[in-house]
Specification:
- Strand 1 and strand 2 form a beta hairpin.
- 29% of the residues are buried.
- The chain has one domain: Jelly Rolls, CATH 2.60.120.10.
- The strands form three sheets. The chain has a five-stranded antiparallel β-sheet.
- By secondary structure, it is mainly β.
Length: 150
C-alpha cells in the first residue's frame, strides 16, 4: 500500500485485534507509561502503550507525523486545545482517533482500570514537541527525540 491509501486507524485496528501476537509482550509499569514499537516499514510505524490509572502524557505534537490511535482496553481521555482551553474527549475501548501532522493533544488514563492503546504514525516519529498552555496560548516547553524521555 502507498501512504496515500493506508488508513492508519485500520492499521491500528489490525494490531489491536491480536495483542497475543505482538512481538513485545504487553506490560504495565507502575512508575510510567509502558510503550514498545511493534512494527515499522517505509510507510508507517506501530506502537503499543499501556496506561495505569493516573498515567498520561504532557501536551505534545508528533514532530510533523500524522497518525491514529485506537483504545484496545480501558478508557482514555484525549484533550485537545480549542478556544485557548483544553477540551476533553473520552475514548472507551474500541474508539479511535485519526489526526493530522499538526495535531497537539495530551492523552491520559483518568479511569480506575488499566488501559491499552495502539498508535500508528506516518512517517516514523523523529521527535515530539511538548507544550505549555499559558494564557490560552501554546508555548514550546521542550523538543524531545523519539523514544528518549517520552
Amino acid at each position: 500500500m502507498t501512504h496515500r491509501t493506508t488508513d492508519l486507524l485500520a492499521v491500528a485496528a489490525r494490531w489491536a485485534a491480536d495483542p497475543g501476537g505482538w512481538p513485545e509482550p504487553l506490560r504495565f509499569d507502575p512508575v510510567t507509561r509502558w510503550y514498545a514499537r511493534l512494527a515499522a516499514d517505509a510507510d508507517h510505524e506501530v506502537w503499543a502503550l499501556s496506561w495505569l490509572p493516573g498515567q498520561g502524557t504532557d501536551l505534545h505534537d508528533h514532530g510533523g507525523s500524522a497518525g491514529a490511535f485506537l483504545v484496545v482496553a480501558g478508557v482514555l481521555t484525549e484533550e485537545t486545545v480549542s478556544g485557548g482551553r483544553l477540551r476533553p474527549h473520552r475514548l472507551p475501548a474500541g474508539a479511535g482517533r485519526r489526526f493530522g501532522a499538526r495535531h497537539v493533544h495530551l492523552v491520559a488514563n483518568r479511569g480506575d482500570a488499566p488501559a491499552v492503546s495502539v498508535h500508528v504514525y506516518r512517517p516514523a516519529l523523529r521527535w515530539m514537541t511538548r507544550y505549555d498552555l499559558t494564557g490560552g496560548r501554546l508555548r514550546v516547553a521542550e523538543v524531545a527525540e523519539a523514544g528518549v524521555a517520552w
